């Protein structure tokens, strides 16, 4: 279960703040982030690996949540960053991450983006031979340390869209081509120092990770032997899932870390690879369960089905519509109450797919109630849009009951940002 905390009024607590009270003070829809939960998640995962293999680093996959305050919290904790675009590099630098702490893993990167990354001084993890060749034409990139993303032919994830390894994936270089590509990089004057893979997202089973570690290490072994590469780091990407349904169980992180590290060490020894830094790139695990989305029920409607209509939609939280993802939903004023009905919970976007839940067991809900959509910290605000001309919601950070607005609610004016109407149309 989700270990929901309530206060003396019986209202849901987030980071010691009353969810109903937050909705009233800051309006809805509202993302509420618990700072300590992010810090705890970071420490738990970091320590689990660090205890078994001290030469270990984590790069937060900031696509999960790019709010500057969230990034600053992880910067304080000592994390690095996995960035996928110039915008994410820029945001990371602004949040105080030194360039050496940022690993840029782009996909289908333009020359301009490559140049930007080189000039920023971040580490480059290349996704294709095309990228390597184009990088070699940038004078400032001469002699740079680089790494490659390899497709280890293993993929896993909570949805087809979130599987990033295997024969259908657009990411990385072919495993069989790795030796050749590393040799090519050396010939072009680069210094390859790393190897990387990321097999997918939302994985709660250790098995696919183990397979990926095995394959990537075998590839690293070959590249070391046949291309003479000395690895400074080996990066297994992100993907660790979190439970979204009450029935799912958490991955046992200590057991997981021990298994991975045992295999890693055995392979280092097998191929005489020394003790390169072991890296992972968690996104969802660090921020996913640290946030809830508060939304207000404005309509109870008995049509052919029973609906609770709320003031958030897939413009606010896309995952249910995009991946059919389950997000647990509780009433913020009766979070522990027994279910007495099943009801569809629908957003306010004018599309049929705009549903947070179908036939969800819920207690009584009335118009005006606040619902808390749980586990809305990862790929939630970062995938929000202004579709239907709805300004994006605010984000509030809670720290032991203290609140800070870390992103103001957008206004109508934000809907027109950067638009121009040609004068000739103003007749
Ligand atoms: N590293 C790389 C290279 C990635 O592409 C990703 C995620 C991660 C790390 C972090 O994965 P995580 O630890 O968060 O699973 N929008 C989808 C998830 C897309 C993930 C894309 N890549 C969702 O809402 O489930």
TrEMBL record:
Instruction: Write one Pfam family the protein is assigned to.
Output: Orn_Arg_deC_N
- Please list the residues that carry the modification N6-(pyridoxal phosphate)lysine: 63
This entry's Gene Ontology molecular function terms read:
diaminopimelate decarboxylase activity; pyridoxal phosphate binding
Specify which residues bind pyridoxal 5'-phosphate according to the UniProt entry for this protein: 239, 281-284, 379
What's in the keyword line of the UniProt record? Amino-acid biosynthesis, Decarboxylase, Lyase, Lysine biosynthesis, Pyridoxal phosphate
Stored PANTHER family: DIAMINOPIMELATE DECARBOXYLASE (PTHR43727), GROUP IV DECARBOXYLASE (PTHR43727:SF2)
Its recorded name reads Diaminopimelate decarboxylase
Report the source organism.
Answer: Methanobacterium lacus (strain AL-21)
